[in-house]
Amino acid sequence: MLKVGLTGGIGSGKSAVSAELASYGAVVIDADALAREVVEPGTPGLAAVVAEFGEGVLAPDGGLDRPRLGEIVFADEEKLARLNAVVHPLVGERSAELMARARADGARVVVYDVPLLVENGLQSLYDVVVVVDAPDEARVERVSRGRGMDPEQVRARIRAQAGREERLAAADLVVDNSGTPEQLRERVARLWEELAARAA
């Protein structure tokens, strides 16, 4: 089983690449989805986040107020590190369970979609590291338009993540997403051929 670490900064198009790889038959494990799952209402993860940051991070429905928490942690590296210390071990446990299930099911290619792969030094956990790359301002524009976020908030998140050069230095393979959606699909098709060959 080929374990692929897929990463890219906010707005790079990483989710589009992982969806396309899933359409070819890859098993995709999405770290962001797992990070949401481990802090759902009633979980020990949510209780730990509230213990760390206070009840002000709760929404009226008892769930996590993500925009509020984002405002707190993306403006302060120490607070971001505290949040990551709570969430990352829980995500790691859950992803290990899903990886074991994929292996038991005979999966040939498992793609672990993880935004903070480089920041957390996780490259050695994967057989291949794939970086989805796009210019910073294109990323700001995509996220501002797609998620309705203020451009300055997007830039703050970009600054909180690994720099483009650092991410590219960690890559075994790079998917350039500076072009059109059609060009991205063509590049992912070539990427899949490469991954399938390595998995054979």
Task: Quickly describe the structure.
This protein is α/β, with parallel strands linked by helices.
Q: What is the number of domains?
A: 2
CATH architecture of the largest domain: 3-Layer(aba) Sandwich
The side-by-side strand order for the widest beta sheet comes to: 2-3-1-4-5
Coarse morphology: globular
* Beta-strand percentage range: 5-15%
Looking at CATH, the homologous superfamily of the largest domain is P-loop containing nucleotide triphosphate hydrolases
InterPro entries: Depp_CoAkinase (IPR001977), P-loop_NTPase (IPR027417)
Function: Catalyzes the phosphorylation of the 3'-hydroxyl group of dephosphocoenzyme A to form coenzyme A.
Catalytic activity: 3'-dephospho-CoA + ATP = ADP + CoA + H(+)
Enzyme class: transferase
What does this protein structure show overall?
This protein has a 5-stranded parallel beta sheet with strand order 2-3-1-4-5, sandwiched between helices. The radius of gyration is 17 Å and the shape is globular. It folds into 2 domains: 110 residues, P-loop containing nucleotide triphosphate hydrolases (Rossmann fold); 80 residues, P-loop containing nucleotide triphosphate hydrolases (Rossmann fold), CATH 3.40.50.300. The longest helix has 28 residues. By secondary structure, it is of the alpha/beta class. Helix 1 crosses helix 9, helix 3 runs antiparallel to helix 5 and helix 6 crosses helix 7. The mean pLDDT is 94. The N and C termini lie close together (9 Å). Catalyzes the phosphorylation of the 3'-hydroxyl group of dephosphocoenzyme A to form coenzyme A. Pathway: Cofactor biosynthesis; coenzyme A biosynthesis; CoA from (R)-pantothenate: step 5/5. Belongs to the CoaE family. One of its GO terms (molecular function) is dephospho-CoA kinase activity. Pfam families: CoaE (PF01121).
